[in-house]
């Protein structure tokens, strides 16, 4: 029996609404498979917690979370708490402290009706973006000198260590080799003359160990254009923290929006818990209405199961998502439907159970 200890951080806004549906899916799987079990412990961390306690999580929050195999997070951030606090003190802190240096963001079109791109099919848009998740432009290094004075200067330093750059690029080569797909590096060596020249040289250097992997290298501006004009160019993509954040939002835009974008923050060595979460934020504009799309958070369940070696379940969840999307009655509002978050979650579970019964 495999037991997975999950820390739930539903967070703010639509976070708790969508996480509830993801948990429903995990509980349904546990019922169907006597070889897997999950336990859930909920942590109230988020902006409400901050307003009450002056911090985003317990003082020993990291120690507490360390006990778990996985963290399943909804979203954090809400008006009233500056975004740089909610993001840095919870989300980025967890990613950093648990050395979740790989951010896996699949960009796959799950149903042709979801893309705004003319005549594009599931075959055209099917890539995996591997984003560096522990340093780079989000390292939090810099300075703010002479604040408020005419000579004010702000420095934001990108940190690209050899260890950090090499391990993410190597991970991407391994993934490309394993899945027999090409690997594209996205960088910006023409303008960022230290960090991205270094990135490009490491990409080339590590590539010598993978002569069987076909590679491409694009500047981030050109890559952004190709994401829209020629998404079929991309199979496995590796890029830095900032560029990965931005290009995967373009990826979301061409595959149905943020309700369909998921991401796994992985510590491949399993020395610390990995974190699974939708890419979207807390969506204050629709929070509390029960209309948020839970597909991204359900897709996170698929990523979680893949990570723990349950790829049959991972695949079953993804296939059921695709099946469900064929039913227009279960489309949420932002894609033109009228189904509620709960209706989508319930229908998903119903279909998953049906697809797995003999
Ligand atoms: N991972 C995270 O926790 C995360 C990520 C991004 C933003 N944030 C935070 O969330 C807050 C809101 O940020 P934002 O408005 O820029 O981004 P957002 O992702 O919350 O919302 C952007 C737009 O997408 C829509 N949307 C998002 N998720 C949806 C879903 N599941 N179903 C239907 N529509 C959905 C929203 O209604 C909104 O119109 C901010 O505080 C921000 O810092 C958190």
Shape: globular
Strand order of the largest sheet: 2-1-3-12-11-4-5-10-8-9
What is the fourth-level CATH superfamily of the largest domain?
Isopropylmalate Dehydrogenase
State which percent range the strand residues make up.
Answer: 15-25%
Mean pLDDT: 96
Short description, anyone?
The protein has 358 residues and is α/β, with parallel strands linked by helices. The chain has 11 helices and 12 strands. The longest helix is centred in the N-terminal third of the chain and has 18 residues.
What attributes does this structure have?
358 residues; alpha/beta; Isopropylmalate Dehydrogenase; two-stranded antiparallel sheet; 11 helices; 40% helix; globular; binds nicotinamide-adenine-dinucleotide; IsoCit/isopropylmalate_DH_CS; EC 1.1.1.83; D-malate dehydrogenase (decarboxylating); IsoPropMal-DH-like_dom; ICDH/IPMDH
Describe the structure.
By secondary structure, the chain is an alpha/beta fold. It has two domains: 193 residues, 3-Layer(aba) Sandwich (Isopropylmalate Dehydrogenase), CATH 3.40.718; 160 residues, Isopropylmalate Dehydrogenase (3-Layer(aba) Sandwich), CATH 3.40.718.10. Helix 6 links the parallel strand 8 and strand 9. Helix 5 packs across helix 6, helix 9 packs antiparallel against helix 10 and helix 10 crosses helix 11. The mean pLDDT is 96. Bound molecules: nicotinamide-adenine-dinucleotide.
List the helices and strands and how they pair.
Layout: E1 2-11, H1 15-32, E2 36-42, H2 47-53, H3 61-65, E3 70-75, H4 83-97, E4 102-108, E5 126-132, E6 136-145, E7 153-159, H5 162-179, E8 183-187, H6 195-207, E9 215-219, H7 220-229, E10 236-239, H8 241-253, E11 262-266, E12 274-278, H9 295-307, H10 311-325, H11 341-356
Parallel strand pairs: 1-2, 1-3, 3-12, 5-10, 8-9, 8-10
Antiparallel strand pairs: 4-5, 4-11, 6-7, 11-12
Helix pairs in contact: 1-9, 1-11, 5-6, 7-8, 9-10, 10-11
Bound molecules: nicotinamide-adenine-dinucleotide (NAD).
The site of nicotinamide-adenine-dinucleotide (NAD) has 24 residues, from helix 4.
């Amino acid at each position: 029996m495999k037991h997975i200890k999950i820390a739930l951080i539903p967070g703010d806004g639509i976070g708790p609404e969508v996480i509830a549906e993801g948990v429903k899916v995990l509980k349904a799987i546990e019922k169907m498979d006597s070889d897997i079990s999950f336990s859930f412990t909920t942590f109230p961390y988020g902006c409400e917690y901050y307003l009450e306690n002056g911090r985003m999580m317990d003082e020993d929050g990291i120690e507490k979370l360390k006990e778990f195999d996985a963290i399943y997070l909804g979203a954090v951030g809400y008006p009233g708490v500056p975004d740089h606090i909610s993001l840095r003190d919870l989300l980025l802190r967890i990613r950093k402290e648990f050395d979740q240096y790989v951010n896996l963001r699949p960009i796959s079109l799950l149903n042709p009706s979801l893309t705004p791109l003319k005549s594009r099919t599931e075959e055209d848009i099917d890539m995996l973006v591997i984003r560096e998740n522990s340093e780079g432009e989000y390292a939090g290094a810099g300075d703010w000198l002479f604040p408020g004075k005419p000579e004010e200067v702000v420095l934001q330093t990108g940190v690209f260590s050899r260890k950090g750059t090499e391990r993410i690029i190597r991970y991407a080569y391994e993934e490309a080799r394993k899945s027999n797909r090409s690997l594209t590096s996205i960088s910006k060596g023409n303008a960022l003359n230290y960090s991205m020249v270094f990135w490009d040289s490491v990409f080339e250097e590590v590539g010598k160990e993978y002569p069987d992997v076909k590679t491409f290298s694009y500047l981030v501006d050109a890559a952004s254009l190709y994401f829209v004009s020629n998404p079929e160019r991309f199979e496995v993509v590796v890029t830095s923290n900032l560029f990965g954040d931005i290009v995967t939002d373009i990826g979301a835009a061409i595959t149905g929006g943020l309700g369909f974008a998921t991401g796994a923050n992985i510590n491949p060595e399993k020395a610390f818990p990995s974190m699974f979460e939708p890419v979207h934020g807390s969506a204050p504009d629709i929070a509390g209405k029960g209309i948020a799309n839970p597909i991204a958070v359900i897709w996170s369940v698929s990523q979680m199961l893949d990570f723990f070696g349950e790829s049959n379940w991972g695949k079953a969840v993804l296939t059921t998502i695709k099946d469900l999307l064929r039913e227009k009655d279960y489309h949420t509002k932002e894609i033109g439907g009228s189904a509620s978050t709960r209706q989508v979650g319930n229908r998903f579970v119903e279909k998953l159970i049906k697809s797995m019964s003999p």
